[in-house]
Amino acid sequence: MPGAFSRSSSESWIISLPVSIQPSGDSVTLSESSAIISHGTTGLVTWNAALYLAEWAIENPAAFTHRTVLELGSGAGLTGLAICKMCHPRAYVFSDCHSLVLEQLRGNILLNGLLLESDATAPAQHPGHTTHNTESPRVTVAQLDWDIVTAPQLAAFQPDVIIAADVLYCPETVLSLVRVLQTLSACQKDRQAPDAYIAFTIRNPETCRLFTTELGKAGISWEAAPRHNQKLFPYEEHSEMEILKLML
């Protein structure tokens, strides 16, 4: 049964996750801007690839269960909120760089009944190494500018899984993202390399080719993740979307 997706006001969307997946009928409530670009950023609205990645995660919960997830460019937070509610991660780090996006993101996390720990540039220690007595994951919000973040700051996250959705919108962003992914790969030391899943809408094939080309230059191999079966959220039928699994 598809999830209900309705607009409650000019600023809020209500997303009800499928009863067949969540017997309690749990839902994600999202407050976001009604404008595609607002206050100089596109991060205040949910984009199609975020919905697509959320669907994939709900169908593949084992990729996130009992693991620490770092999301790059969380935006309004739809994907992360769905993963936190449906996939039972140990800890989840939402991140973005724009102050208004982070403010809206914190509000959406609290709106969905998740406990929000103190904001940080990076957690002081691996979130999974501490005791957490509730079923909800440990949730933090990090201000993360891909152009200036340092290797020690990225190393402190120690993620098991890295995700991002709809962040391949210009060549400059692609180069910054690959640099961050390469740094995250290099700072793992003796830890197992994290899994990484990047979801995107194919708007400009040249931008997508640039991404895979730069991954190759950085020594990061990739493969297309298998497509999921259920369409839970409404998005444009003609949109061509893909998820790449990276081997960091």
TrEMBL record:
<dbReference type="GO" id="GO:0032991">
    <property type="term" value="C:protein-containing complex"/>
</dbReference>
<dbReference type="Pfam" id="PF10294">
    <property type="entry name" value="Methyltransf_16"/>
</dbReference>
<dbReference type="GO" id="GO:0008168">
    <property type="term" value="F:methyltransferase activity"/>
</dbReference>
<dbReference type="InterPro" id="IPR019410">
    <property type="entry name" value="Methyltransf_16"/>
</dbReference>
<keyword id="KW-0949">S-adenosyl-L-methionine</keyword>
<dbReference type="InterPro" id="IPR029063">
    <property type="entry name" value="SAM-dependent_MTases_sf"/>
</dbReference>
<keyword id="KW-0489">Methyltransferase</keyword>
<dbReference type="GO" id="GO:0032259">
    <property type="term" value="P:methylation"/>
</dbReference>
<keyword id="KW-0808">Transferase</keyword>
<protein>
    <submittedName>
        <fullName>Family with sequence similarity 86 member B1</fullName>
    </submittedName>
</protein>
